[in-house]
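Quick one: structure tokens for this chain, please?
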Amino acid sequence: MSHPTTGRLLTLLAATAAWAGSPAVAATAIDLTAPGLVFESAPYSLGFAFSVTNELDLTGLGVYDHLGDGLEAPAEVALWTGNSQVATLGAVVPTGTAAALEGGFRFVRVAPLRLHPGEVYVIAAYLDGGWATSFGLGQQGTATVDSHVNLLGDRFGDGFFQLVYADQSDGGAGAWLGANFQLAAVPEPAPAAMLALGLVALAWCRRSAFSRI
């Protein structure tokens, strides 16, 4: 039969392990407070350039869904690193309401992609037959940008009805929406988590030993 102290220790260790390995909560890069003027999104790939202040994981890609009533067609979303015209990451947001709706955008989860400070990223979306908007470009839209994201200006590309690298800009400090993404804090490294578990176990054992003296 195990000692009661051992049982409590195992319970504490299990709880600590679950906390250390739990995924970080995803945040939306651009939280659209009010859309700007709405226009037909085709034939443009619409988005923005950005950098990050510290290492983060990109965990979702999304596209603007006007009125939140579902997408008119599948939307393509992609992320490029620097001036490379080969996409680093891409995804398709399905037609209708299948994808999760967050703050006016339909998002799909992607395998986490590590974003690094000092890099410039470009994100854009293409939605055939859909609607788009903007913020910070003199078209009445307002939004809040996550504090870990630095917007570097609007980006768009004319792909003749297909997603392309968004290499053009009107010089605005805002974004064409278009695309959006979700991000999360980098998970705690496994060695650090194990060290924390060991320290918890050591402290518990010492406490138990003193209580029996």
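Helices lie at 4-21, 190-211.
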